[in-house]
Amino acid sequence: MKKNTIPSAETQIEALRVAKATQKEGQTKEQTKLIAQGIQKGIEQYKKQQKAKARERDKLKKKTQQVKNTQLETTANTSSSAPQIIYKQHWLPWGLIIVSWVGFGAYLAYTSAL
After folding, report:
1. How far apart are CA 20 and CA 28, in angstroms?
2. Which pLDDT score is estimated for 4?
3. pLDDT digits 0-9 by tens, 17-45
4. Nearest by Cα to 34 from 44, 25, 23
5. How many CB atoms lie within 10 A of CB 76?
6. d(Cα 109, Cα 58) in Å, to the nearest integer?
């Protein structure tokens, strides 16, 4: 890994702004500069930690996505290899049941009307 010894200008400006905001009475410029350097190192360390966490999250996300994809592939492979059984029923039995119930209803209506 390469070491970046020169911090970004934004980090330097932010550290100096925070150091000046917390400056005490009687504090010399050198002391403020040292405090700014400490803050700057803290900011850099925080950024490094956040980058490492982001990399870990990305790795975990990628790993879970790969697991999902392999699960989908295996389920697709197993379902396509198994023969699908399709039951088709003929219309004749259902038609006869309907005709018989209609006939039965007509018989009941005719006998009750007499």
Report:
1. 11
2. 56
3. 888 888 888 888 889 889 888 989 999 99
4. 23
5. 10
6. 75
The model's confidence at residue 77, banded by pLDDT at 50, 70 and 90, is low
User: What is the average pLDDT value for the chain, to the nearest integer?
Assistant: 86
Amino acid at 26: G
Q: What CA–CA distance (Å, rounded) separates 7 from 43? A: 10
**Is pLDDT at 83 greater than 80 in this prediction?**
no
pTM for this one? 0.51
Q: What's the CA gap between 45 and 39, in Å, rounded?
A: 10
Judge whether 14 and 47 are in contact, CB under 8 Å.
no
3-state secondary structure the chain: CCCCCCCCHHHHHHHHHHHHHCCCCCCCHHHHHHHHHHHHHHHHHHHHHHHHHHHHHHHHHHHHHHHHHHHHHHHHHHHHHCCCCCCCCCHHHHHHHHHHHHHHHHHHHHHHHC
- Which contacts qualify for 67-71: CB closer than 8 Å, 24 or more apart? none
